[in-house]
Amino acid sequence: MRLVFAGTPEFAAAALKALLAAGHEVPLVLTQPDRPAGRGMKLRMSAVKELALAHGLNVAQPENLKIEAARQPIRDAAAEVMVVAAYGLILPQAVLDLPALGCVNIHASLLPRWRGAAPIHRAIEAGDAQTGITLMQMDKGLDTGAMLRRATLPILAGDTTGSLHDKLAELGAREIVALLPELAAGRVAATPQDDALATYAAKIGKDDARLDWRLSAAALDRRIRAFDPFPGAFCLLDGEALKIWRARPLEGHGAPGEILAVRRQDLRVACGEGALEISEVQKAGGRRLPVESFLAGHDLRPGILLA
User: Are residues 268 and 277 in contact, defined by beta-carbon separation less than 8 angstroms?
Assistant: First the structure.
C-alpha cells in the first residue's frame, strides 16, 4: 500500500521499520521538529526521522497541521492510508479526511482503557494484569475512534515502562503489518468504543513520581516500575532527591518511610502496609547504583526516615 507515516519516538520507529520491511510504499514521513536534548542541549532528530533518512524517505516536520501549507505534502503524497504512532501532534479533520482509507493509530493500550498520553505508565501504576495494542480509526476525539484490531499482552511482575514499551512496540509493528492487507481488501469491521468504560492516561509529571510512603508496598513497587526509565520514582533523603529504581514488596512494620534494616545489598523501608526492599538507587547528579555501592558513601541506619 501507499502510506503516509506519522510518528516520533522509538515506539513509532519500530512500526515504520516493519512497514518498510513488508514492502509498503512510504512517500512521506511526518515527525516532530528536532528538539534540544542532552547536557549540551544540541538539536536532536527523532528516532523516526533517523530511520526515515536512512531509507531515503521524504521527511516533513511541521510545527502544526492547522494551515493548508503544512497539509499540502500529505495531499501531494496521495496515500491510501496514514499510519500514526506516538506522533505528538493533533490531526485536524482536514488531515483525517485526506487518505482514502483514513488514518489508523497504533495505541499502546486496550482501548477504551487508558486513552491519552501515558498508557504504559498508567497501566503498570494501576496494577493492570494485561495491556496490549489497539489499532484505531482516528477521529477528532482523543483516542476515541472505532477499533480495527486489538492484541493483548500480560504485564509481568517485573515489568517496567521501559521493558513493556519495547514489547508493545514490537507487538504494534506486527499488528499494523497484519491489518493493512485486510483493510485494503475491505475485510475489517470497525468496533465502536464503549465510552462508559474509558479511562484517561494523563501525561506524567514530576509530582507523580514522588513516593508517598503512606501507600502500600505493592502500590509503591508499581509506581517505581511505572516511572522507570522516566521520570524515575523518588523520595527525599536529608532534603535531597533520591531516585529508587529497583525494589520489591515484602512483609514489614514501622512508621511510613522508616528504614527498618540496612543490609549489604538492600535497604528495607516501611510503608503504609508492608515494606520495600530497595536494591538500586540514584542520588541527584549521580548515576544508578546498586545499594551496596551507594552505602559505601552514605551512613544510613535503621530508624532514619525517608520523606
Answer: yes
